[in-house]
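User: These chains co-purify. Model them together.
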Amino acid sequence: MFLGVLSSLIDKTLKDMRHVGWIISGTLTIFLTLILNGNISMFSGIPPLGKLLNPQSGVWANGESSNNYVDENISLDGLDGEIQIVYNKRKVPHIFANTMSDALLAQGYVEARDRQFQLEFIYRFASGQLSEVLGERTIELDKQQRRKGLPLATKNTIRGWQQFPEKFRLIENYVKGMNLWLDNVADKKLPVEFKLIGIPASNWSVEKCAYVQKWMSDVLCGRSSDIEMTNLFNALGEDQFHFLYPDKAMIVDPVIPEEVDYVFDSIYLDPDNHDGNVLIGALKDKYQLHPQGPKNLGSNNWAISKEKSSTGAPIFCNDPHLQLTLPSVWYEIGIHLPDMDSYGVTIPGMPGIMMGFNNHIAWGETNVGQDVKDFKKMKWVDKSNYTYLLDGKEVTADYSVEEIKVKGQESIYDTIIHTYWGPVTYESSQGDNDYAMRWLAHDIPDKPEFMTFLAGLEAKNYNDYLEITSNFITPAQNFAFASKDGDIALRVNGTFPAKNWQEGRFVEDGSRSIYNWESYIPREQNPQVLNPSRGFISSANQRSTDDGYPYYYNGKFEYDRNRSINQYLSTSDELTIEDMKRFQLSNRSVFAEDIVPVLIGLLVVDKLSTTESKYVEELQAWDFHFDKESEIATFFDLWFEEIKDQTFDEIDQLSDSLNIAYPANWRIAEILQDYPDADIFDIKGTPDKEQAFDIVRTSFKSTISLLDSLRESGDDLSWGAYSPLNIRHLARLAPFSEENIEVGGHPDALNAIGNTHGPSWRMIVSLEESTKAYGVFPGGQSGSPFSPFYKTSLEKWIKGEYHELPEVRVPEDINEPLFTVNLKNQ
Amino acid sequence: MKSFLISIIIIFVVTYIIFLALPWWTIPIATFIVGIIFRLKSIPSFLSGFLGVGIVWLVLIVSKDAGNDVNIASAMGELFGGRSGYMVYILSGLIGGLMGGLASLTGSKMVLAFYNTSEK
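Assistant: Joint model of the two components:
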């Protein structure tokens, strides 16, 4: 009826040519407006330009001017008292509140206000929902996150946290603070990335906090090489496997100094539970394994006793090495309660202060590389039915259908099977090689983990600190501590399963529950040390203990930075703050220092050409610092890569049909030094039996010609130019990134800079009566690329300078504040 | 000529008020109405909307950006494949102008088509 009238009207109008003009221009106007506003999307990949570029709510509204900040007053319900948030001249907020709950509300508010895009991105990344806003290029990533069981882990985490209703209210208040900002963000205030990418505004929830916590677990303890190790064991045979992939290096220099004895009754584990049946048959399919994260992840922390310190007080240092991003990984914050002033950095989305100091103590963490993720091979009775065998019984699995929304196309669905062990992460085409994941981060937490980093807002001494941080479960960290009382201490903190020898290194039979973790190490049996006689504590992701520790553990550990730190800290009993800076910024590689003489020894020096001798002389003169200007550092790096390439030809071959991993650098160094005639050096396919010196010699020659050809083509071979640092925007938007930064440093050096990773926060705290503290991170406080505070500190960080972190007790202590936000009860 | 100028000035004012108080996409509705009222010939009608909206749009963004510590136009230009900041300003102005011009043209042509009154 209606359509009939309409079409007759159109017919009538069109007969009269006068109407043609306005109909055409009217239609154009409407279409143009709808396109510009993004109601119709004509060209994928191009943002709605009207929405983006209009003077009212477009990107122009995201501008900031440093001399244009004004104070703000906000009224709301349910505050315990008045809250004052004073932003200092670097846009670091100092929160002054009367209660913990008010302080957390304010913390949520400032984080949402300054880092909304980062929060949204981390949440979407963790939960596998990036494709909804970024399109098909992130589908695989989204699938991975779901297959790793991040949604499951988050659901369980909330269930655990809710068992502590009183504490849960604190995190709810933090979320309330976030939404105080987010609920009121109109188009105008949306971060520029939301406008560019077309992300809808959304508010925050405790669930999203849990996702941030699980994201950290995934980054820091989401590693597993069970599948690779099982393949290698089967392909290489037991002897060669253990030769190339031993559990640990010969020189360990553990986190807990050897003087510590482990005097306690450890849990009894039945060794029969992990007998020879651990290894199952060769794995047939090559899987698209989830990326393991870069090898350069790590951190340093240490503290020296007052006896070793020139300031007469303990000095505490921490620098976590993470993927460097913009907006910056860390958010600096000061939180002031009536009798406690704390300061430090945190990852937006989790309450409290992760690394920092208060009136009494300083604290900070490095990652523990222990393996808490295992894979089990499923024995299906009927896969179409999701029925599998467990201890001789048939069990039917649950499943979830994951919808992955994709911008500009249909949703993708992935069915995930949930077994006794966890989600089935990898599935083979035939169903005969399916692996379920057993990961500590999936478990329902028995403690309110989010309370851990509130320790700094409360703890006055080591006992307080131990008690509060015992809430921490995973990702396990080396929690280092120093106090004005004069204590220095460190605990390998987190929940660890008690394991039998080699348990968790390989894929295990999923049809027998005895292969599950039976029990967990009681927290008081975790490796820990208080005031050791050497006068310092330190950690750098190395193994936690020496062989005296009664529990077996495997994982990925570090063997170089730890030795550097311990050597540096042993050099003097009069260490200054300047020394601490020097150590944090040290580009020296102990690894290079150890291996270069060995390599030169293998070169058979008398047969060298003039050019070759020149390189040897340069190597001999090298101080093993990966300084920005050093060309010999570049040479060494290329040479060592070449040695590995030539040595591992047989492992390369395996990688065509199997998932494998290469031996660690520390092991290659040991083999070069101690077993120069090992089989591994033989290049298959040549009649001769090559030895280490053959490999070292040919790789030396080929590296020289590689370098020559690079030099001829005009490449700058200084280390900084050859291996520049890239600090990328989270969504990889180039104008918001800082790329090709020429700096010194190396993953094996304390200044652990490598490609996209590096010291994400350098902090030094001298716990004198009046605290002296210094800190810097490569970025800025604001998450907005158009803010003058987006990357304010980057230059300082590159130069190796620090900000002084002045002691603040009252708002008046803050010099030249930018502006103040006052929160009051309605 | 006189009504052309008055039309532009009215569109200036209306556009500015809309930016202060109403969503930006209501601009074509307003210029459409101005088009109806002034009943200009096609080209002057289009131009009055184009210039009226475009100039206000351009002036607002340029003056806003001038007060910023970080120049937004140049950053956006880089995002648009290495264009200069000026290009971004011009593109922005063009978008607004086109929208305003087309709407004003529609208004004047429509009213002329229905009422067949002589064009002013």
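Helices of chain B lie at 2-21, 27-38, 42-66, 72-79, 85-115.
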